[in-house]
Design a protein that fits this description.
Blueprint (H helix, E strand, L loop, with lengths): L1 H16 L1 H7 L1 H31 L3 E6 L10 H8 L8 H7 L5 E15 L4 E9 L3 H4 L4 E4 L4 H5 L4 E4 L1 H7 L9 E4 L2 E9 L4 E2 L2 E2 L3 E5 H9 L6 E6 L5 H15 L10 E5 H44 L1 H9 L4 H40 L10 H27 L3 H6 L2
Parallel strand pairs: 3-10, 5-7
Antiparallel strand pairs: 1-11, 1-12, 2-3, 2-6, 2-11, 4-7, 5-10, 6-7, 8-9
Helix pairs in contact: 1-13, 3-11, 3-13, 3-14, 11-13, 11-14, 13-14
């Protein structure tokens, strides 16, 4: 035990003697360890956020959205259509009304999302417009804290009323009560009848900088359309979600005259399936980042090995002298192996500290912008990081150490 401590003391002295070179050697290891810590911490924190937000919406929801015919159900429907520049116009509010007649489906709302310039007497900015029928407020986790939400009668009569998010209220009406004030969208005046409760970031989208309009008002007065990109229904028993999904598909296949499932112009997703998909995506991203971390660690390990070869060459005469006075090859091997392990472990510790600081900074920044995400120490990631650093020192230090141990003492003493 005492001899091992002596080896580590000697290793730290050697590290301090060439501090700049030692730190540069550990750079790849530090980057790899930082990545490992961030993957385990931010990956888990992000999964927790997504899970809690999906649970907040409830597992008793089913989403029906447009999809380009010929694309698989795993392709994001509306996003794909936007990227391809295609507008699918076959989904109607009447489709939702028929779906609501299916037993055990108890409520639903249709929605349209768009970006429009919103003008008040004090300011004008672009905001996301969330248009839906009145059932939105009963199904979504949103809540009105000032005034009220619009009614279904107002939706059907194309009422020019609006409910605004907390950020919109503060930006468009600084130091003014926004209730009963007017905003203008595409040349049309809307009376503000309510302000939403602050929600912050939900699914990486700021819910407080949105304007809520009646669906039919948005369709007829602003966009001039009669189709919808999606609708969401609420079911009575979440255990029936997959069965009701099949019922919805059969009904819409019949209404849209679809005989080939590959040619469907819609996609139906339960909240359970959405959760599974998000877990797959985040899991794949974590694997990708861990692969990149492994590459960084490999590069760092090769750097350590190369530096140890240089160290062995620089200290050839020292090795010869130690052997000449009786040091066994095992002692020489342990000395240089300990130095390699010390370099990688120091790099690992620096990487862990830097990784935790990076995670804390990232989460603090996200919290500042309203994301409900918590910081936690990834103990599993720390154990893996330390283990990886130790293993790296062993794997990439053993060959240079063996070379040092096998040097001929007479030739080593002659080395210039």
């Amino acid at each position: 035990m005492n001899s091992l401590l002596l080896y580590f003391k000697a290793a730290f002295r050697a590290l301090k003697a060439n501090l700049g070179r030692s730190l540069l050697t550990t750079l790849g290891i530090i980057i790899g360890i930082v990545t490992v810590i961030m993957v385990f911490s931010l990956g888990k924190a992000t999964q927790n956020v997504i899970t809690s937000e999906l649970e907040g919406y409830g597992s008793n929801l089913i989403v029906v959205e447009t999809k380009i015919p010929g694309f698989s159900d795993t392709n994001p429907g509306m996003a794909t259509a936007m990227v391809e520049g295609i507008t699918v116009t076959t989904l109607k509010e009447s489709d939702m009304e028929e779906v609501l007649k299916i037993p055990n489906i108890i409520n639903g709302y249709a929605g349209i999302v768009g970006l429009e310039r919103v003008i008040s007497l004090y300011e004008d900015q672009k905001y996301m417009i969330q248009a839906s029928n009145a059932a939105f407020i009963d199904i979504d986790q949103s809540e009105v804290i000032v005034g009220r939400f619009y009614s279904e009668a107002e939706n059907k009569s194309l009422a020019r009323v609006a409910v605004i998010g907390d950020t919109v209220a503060k930006e468009l009406f600084p130091n003014v009560d926004p209730l009963n004030q007017s905003i203008r969208i595409k040349g049309i005046n809307f009376k503000i009848i309510g302000v939403m409760k602050p929600l912050g970031i939900v699914f990486f989208q700021n819910m407080d900088d949105q304007v809520y309009l009646p669906l039919k008002t948005m369709q007829k007065l602003i966009m001039g359309i009669n189709h919808i990109p999606y609708f969401m229904v609420q079911i009575e028993d979440e255990t029936q979600a997959l069965f009701l999904k099949d019922e919805i598909i059969q009904l819409l296949d019949q209404r849209h005259s679809i005989k080939n499932p590959d040619r469907r112009d819609f996609r139906v997703t339960t909240m359970g399936e959405a959760m599974d998909l998000l877990n797959i995506v985040t899991g794949a991203l974590q694997i990708l980042l861990l692969v990149l971390a492994a590459i960084a660690l490999l590069v760092g390990g090769i750097g350590v090995m190369n530096v140890m070869f240089v160290v062995v060459t620089e200290r050839t005469r020292e090795i010869g002298l130690r052997k000449a006075i009786g040091a066994p090859p095992r002692a020489i091997l342990l000395q240089f192996l300990t130095e390699a392990i010390t370099i990688t472990v120091v790099g690992g510790i620096i990487g862990i500290i830097a990784g935790l600081l990076a995670v804390y900074g990232s989460i603090s920044l996200a919290q500042y912008f309203g994301v409900k995400i918590d910081f936690f120490i990834p103990y599993k990631g720390i154990v893996i990081a330390i283990s990886a650093a130790l293993l790296e020192g062993l794997l990439f230090g053993v060959y240079p150490a063996k070379k040092a141990a096998s040097l001929n003492p007479i030739e080593s003493l002659r080395y210039e």
